[in-house]
Structures are given as structure tokens and as C-alpha cells.
Amino acid sequence: MPDVVINKEVFYNPVDFVLKKLGGTWKIPVLWRLRVKTWRYTELQKDIHHISQKMLTQTLKELEAEGFVQKKVYAEVPPRTEYSLTPRGQKAVEVITYLRNYGLELMKEQGIDYEEMIRREKQEKNQKP
User: Fold this and answer.
1) 67 partner at 20 to 30 Å CA-CA among 75, 82, 95, 117?
2) Cα 106-112-117 angle, rounded to 5 deg
3) pLDDT digits (tens, 9 = 90+) for 37-75
4) How confident is the model at residue 4 (pLDDT cuts 50, 70, 90)?
5) What is the DSSP string of 51-111?
């Protein structure tokens, strides 16, 4: 297979290309949340545990530059910024969904019930005063 070079970055095949576009720690969690609704920056930051302000800003900029996310700024005081998926982002979520489902299957094979873990975590969070 021929190597593809774009902006001095080498891609060895189409799978490598898409993984570099969607890879990293935070892109998939951001896209996953945007699949169901439009989010404001602060909502995303509160919902994605462990992400720093710098990394969320960088991730959103990269996703916007790649055409996966659209940013809408409202001229209000204070300013309001919302993020939503583009058609390209919606297509990426289809791929992410497939990978997630396969990951859940592999986890079950290892005796891990990830969905139950999430349910318990939410239940514990709701019980805290």
C-alpha cells in the first residue's frame, strides 16, 4: 500500500488515517457526548471527568478544524458558545458506536459488565448529599 502524506504527516493506510483523525484521549469522549445534543463548553467540561480546560479547548479546536464539530457563538453577555456535530461528526459517531459495542462484547468475554458499572456509579453519585 502506498503511504499518503498530508501536511508532512504520513498515513500508512485508510485505518491509520481515521485513527489519527479520531485518536487521542479526548476526541471520542467529546464526540460521544455530542451525538445526542448540543453542548455548551462548561457542560462538556463538567461531564468529562479528568479533562483540563486546556485539553478540552484544544480538542474542540481540532475537531472543529477537521470538520467533525461546529461551534456557534452567540453575541450575548456573557457570551454563549455551543458545540454540535456536523454530518461528518455524525458519521464518525456511527464508527465509534460500532467500536464501543465491540469493546463491550470483549469486556463481557473477560467477565466485565461495564454498563452495570456505569449504572452503579450513577446511583452512587445520586445518593451523595
Assistant:
1) 75
2) 125
3) 999 999 999 999 899 999 999 999 999 999 999 999 999
4) confident
5) --HHHHHHHHHHHHHTTSEEEEEE--SS-EEEEEE-HHHHHHHHHHHHHHHHHHHHHHHTT
CA–CA–CA angle 73, 79, 83 (5° rounding) = 35
Q: How far is CA 116 from CA 96, 104, 107, 119, in A?
A: 20, 11, 12, 5
Residue pointed to by grid coordinates 500500500: 1
The string of pLDDT tens digits covering residues 77-105 is 888 999 999 999 999 999 999 999 999 99
Count CB neighbours of 17 within 10 A. Answer: 14
**Whether 2 contacts 27, CB under 8 Å:** no
Beta-sheet pairing, 9-11 with 4-6: antiparallel
56 vs 52: CA distance, rounded Å: 6
The span from the first CA to the last CA of the chain, in angstroms, equals 58
pTM above 0.90, yes or no: no
Average model confidence (pLDDT) across the chain: 92
